[in-house]
Amino acid sequence: MALLRLHLLRPPPHPLAAVSSSWRRALPTAAPAATASRLLCSSQPAAAPSPSIVGGLLDYLNESWTQFHATAEAKRQLLDAGFELLSESDDWDLQPGGRYFFTRNMSCLVAFAVGEKYRVGNGFNIIAAHTDSPCLKLKPRSASFKSGHQMINVQMYGGGLWHTWFDRDLTLAGRVILKAADGSFLHKLVKVSRPLIRVPTLAIHLDRTVNSDGFKPNLENHLAPLLATKYEDTTVNSDEKKGSNSSKIAHHPLLLQILSEEIGCGIDEIIGMELNVCDTQPSCLGGGNNEFIYSGRLDNLASCYCAIRSLMDSSKMSEELSNEKAIRMVALFDNEEVGSDSMQGAGAPTMFHAMRRIVDSLMHQSMGEGALERAITSSFLVSADMAHALHPNYPDKHEEYHRPELQKGLVIKHNANQRYATSAVTAFLFKEIARIHNLPVQEFVVRNDMGCGSTIGPILASGVGIRTVDCGIPQLSMHSVREMCGKEDIDTTYKHFKAFFETFSDIDRKLSVDF
After folding, report:
1. 263-284: burial string, b at 16+ Cβ within 10 Å, e else
2. Strand-by-strand arrangement of the 170-179 sheet
């Protein structure tokens, strides 16, 4: 959640069973994973009723250290589920009953399933979320030296709790651009699995008043991660030193060597990179009853996974779309944490253009007037972003009668000033789904003496003109390097989203507002 409105996947470095074997007992019993290339936390019995998706979420989180990896992992799962990959640059030949998706910038993804009974002018039932999380990112020239140490220059992305990044075992992940021998360029994802960098705090002996005055680091001077002690680099010749665009000048040769070994390429092949600083501790279950999920990037990958999983599971069999008259869609955007104003963010017309192209492709010989406009009027958007759960040590930070709690279901967010896009109508329709399926639901309103955050809901509601409800999974430690939420809320959210796809069209036609 933003403070303002503003394929190379590798397994985790160490077996998760060895790191966190205690929480595995809380997951549904399952046979060992069939593939050796991925370390999976989940696998449920085929016949189990309402199986938990928590293990699948942990797998997704452990694969998805960056927005690029989150999108690539969603892509892999959609392909495995039988969805067809589209390109925004190609003509689309869509058919009722078809399942499709495309990616943009490998950090934004739109997937959709067309109902067998779709007719031109019918609506879209959409769940939208975002793939990015607050983090530190490498500056274009990341190499710096301080007192004989090799340091990494970083910039802050989003509104993170930056003090939580100190004294963590950190590493780097993201994407690189490679130059191939034939002169072409390659886009590759990279993840350095081992602890690589660290932002050390100053010892209390040298900062005696830190506990009384508070920890107040200068974010330019004190947040640079330590890579190694300084050494003389003999790999850069004098000609390369003269070239201001050389990667060897912009980045430490040691860092380039580590990246090249991870990717399996030569150092000279690396001509560009976009890397995030990541925490290496795996996502896991915890708490006295193994009831909590401890992880980075829960905001907002938990919503992304529940959305993608509910779309796949509600349309994996042809009969599940046989009576559907609408189009079921999931849209995952980048850059929500910094305002969404980018080509891959919700501020771009990506979703609107996708809706228009889908309608155009499915029109065939139909010449109905205003097909897209009629479809938008009939459409509904669930904007899914994490919500603030009641903090037991700070209960006064919540409005007295709107205090969402962990393990008690999705939270519907309200704000009279439209920081959230929820209205009485959209809240009712979303709660009606919960009532029919006996699912818990909560509501949140910020205190009048506090500012209110926002998310992609108002951006899409105003940009597309679509009815929208803002909701989220309750969590604690939002924007920390390590967040937490309730295990039960993940399964509840999945059921709510799946029920939305399966039943919303029938519920919606019973309500008339403009007539």
Report:
1. bebeeebbeebebbbbbbbbbb
2. 185-191, 170-179, 270-279, 135-146, 149-157, 226-229
- Single-letter amino acid code for the residue at 77: Q
Per-residue pLDDT reduced to its tens digit, 442-489? 999 999 999 888 999 999 999 999 999 999 999 999 999 999 999 999
pLDDT in tens, 321-367: 999 999 999 999 999 999 999 999 999 999 999 999 999 999 876 66
pLDDT of 427:
97
Cα–Cα distance measured from residue 13 to residue 25, given in angstroms and rounded to the nearest whole number: 21
The owner of tokens 């609408």 is 326
C-alpha atoms less than 13 angstroms from C-alpha of 36 in its C-beta half-sphere: 0
User: What mean pLDDT do residues 17-30 have?
Assistant: 41
The token pair that represents 407 in the structure block: 């393990």
Beta bridge partners of 275: 174
- Burial (Cβ within 10 Å: 0-12, 13-18, ≥19) of residue 356: middle
For residue 335, is the peptide bond before it cis, meaning its omega torsion is within 30 degrees of 0? Answer: no
Q: How far is CA 447 from CA 159, 396, 399, in A?
A: 20, 10, 5
Distance CA 348, CA 135 (A): 22
Dihedral sign, Cα of residue 446, residue 448, residue 451, residue 455: positive
Beta bridge partners of 454: 2
Q: Which residue has the tokens 């790999």?
A: 235
Q: Indicate the DSSP class of residue 197.
A: B
Give per-residue burial for 159-183: e unless 16+ CB within 10 Å, then b.
Answer: bbebbbbbebebbbbbbbebbeeee
- Token pair listed for 288: 């006295």
Which residues lie closer than 8 Å to 346 by C-beta, 6 or more apart? 128, 130, 331, 333, 336, 340, 456, 459, 460, 463
CA angle 158, 163, 168 (to 5 degrees): 100
Tell which residue, 88, 84, 86, has the closest CA to residue 98: 84
The mean pLDDT value of the chain amounts to 89
Q: What is the pLDDT of residues 395-436, one digit of tens each?
A: 999 999 999 999 999 999 999 999 999 999 999 999 999 999
pLDDT at 47: 43
CA distance 1 to 143: 31
Q: What is the C-alpha to C-alpha distance for residues 474 and 333, in angstroms, rounded to an integer?
A: 20
